[in-house]
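Consider one such protein record:
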Amino acid sequence: MSNGSKPPERWALLGEHVRHETPIFNVLGRRYRHPVRRTEREFVVLAASDWVNVVALTADRRIVLVRQFRYGLDDFSLEIPGGVMDPGEDPVTAGLRELQEETGYAGGRARLLGSVNPNPAIQTNRCHFVFVEGAVATGATEWDTDEEIEVVALPADDVYALARNGGIVHALVLNALMLFEPEWRARRGGTGV
């Protein structure tokens, strides 16, 4: 490496404890020791369940989206359907469940597009991205108590335009669209999106 850097050391986990519990994540204190300097330090991490997000494509080449108020943003956000996975749940099964619950759409073939760590600096969970082909509106939703969702199915090219111009701001939704892009290019004849 030209800048003189070297590979970092792997810190040793000495233990962890729950500092605070919330309905959506636990705040943990994790104590680590540096293997060379022998220094110890406690770091704060958020322990959360894994998530799943769904790129659902209809037969007429529309992507199913949800528009809902987001408290962290203090505004509305246009997103793909998704949610918290149950412990041990398969991502594809969870994706099909979340698609039905949030949008009333059911899917045909489904497969995993990929998985990421949303913020490995402070979070323990993963986010899985599922592609559902042949999504069809069934009308039956099962929203959580505080959920109010507008379901919108937009042409896929329009969704990518929104992603490029700031109409979609959720980082994990943008990540899912990036993972789906090669599939979409192939479906539309290899031209850019």
Observations:
- The chain has a mean pLDDT of 94.
